[in-house]
Each structure stands twice: as C-alpha cells, then as structure tokens.
Amino acid sequence: QAVPAGSHVRLNLQTGEREAKLPDSDNGRSDTREERRRKRYRGAAGLGKVDVDANSFTSQELKKALAKMKESEKAERKVRREFLAQEEEVRKKFRPIEQLKEEFEKLNMKMETDYEIMVKLISKFNSSASTLDEKVAALYDLEYYVHQV
C-alpha cells in the first residue's frame, strides 16, 4: 500500500501488521512531548487520510475493522467445520482398539499390542527355563519391535 512520502514505516512484531506514522510535523521541527504522546502508529491499510489523534477513529475505519473481524470469524468457523467433518470421516473408517479386542475375543482370538508382546519376549529371555535358541529368537523378535519404537 502506498504511503505519503516521508512517513515512518515499521513492522509490528506483535500483530504482524505493517504500520505507518505520519511525519512529526510539516516544517520538520520536533513536536513537543505532549504532541508526540497524542500521535499514534496506525495500520497502513489504505484507509485514506486519518486523524492521528489516538482517541478518535472515523466511522469508515471502524466499519472496515469490523468487516475484517467478521470475515476472519467466518473463515475460522469454516476451517473448524471442515476439520470436524474430516475427523468424523476418519472415525467412520476406523474403530477403537477396545472394540476390536472385544470382537476378536468373540472369535476366540486374542489381539496383543506391541507392548504386550515385548513384555512376553523379555520374560522369555529372562526365564531360566528357556533354551539358548529360544533366547536368541526372543532377542531377534525384540529387536524388530524396539526398532519400530
């Protein structure tokens, strides 16, 4: 956006907006402290000439700011609705692990998690009743599961 020549321009790191400040005075002299305190930075959004008194805003400025707020609210709601729709689609495709375990139990099949398998392999390795071949096989299997983690 074009700004008047001689304006001070900066990027507000808190809001991420570019801001422009009108020059201190027309004749180049420094303003008094009180005058500097009353002046403010304003967004360089192309709103035309703006009164730089910190306590006054034109009705056009307020309307434009309100319109931007409404637009961003609508966009946020749209994104939120899309996210919830995607989440619901995923929920329809997959079932919780508890439900799967119950269904496998009905089929007389036990479903084990990786953690449960690893615990069994460690106990097999630590068991004094296991043979050397069983311990080696347990270590190979453990290596596979640990690599996944």
UniProtKB/TrEMBL annotation:
Q: Name one GO molecular function term.
A: adenyl-nucleotide exchange factor activity
Protein keywords = Coiled coil, Endoplasmic reticulum, Protein transport, Transport
UniProt GO cellular component terms: endoplasmic reticulum
Coiled coil spans: 62-117
Compositionally biased spans, kind Basic and acidic residues: 16-35
State the superkingdom: Eukaryota
Gene label: Sil1
> GO terms for biological process?
protein transport
Phosphoprotein among keywords: no
Membrane-spanning intervals of the chain: none
Q: Known PANTHER family for this protein? A: NUCLEOTIDE EXCHANGE FACTOR SIL1, PROTEIN FOLDING REGULATOR
Q: Where is this region: Disordered?
A: 1-45
Query: Which taxonomic lineage does the organism of this UniProt entry have?
Result: Eukaryota, Metazoa, Chordata, Craniata, Vertebrata
Instruction: Name it.
Output: SIL1 factor
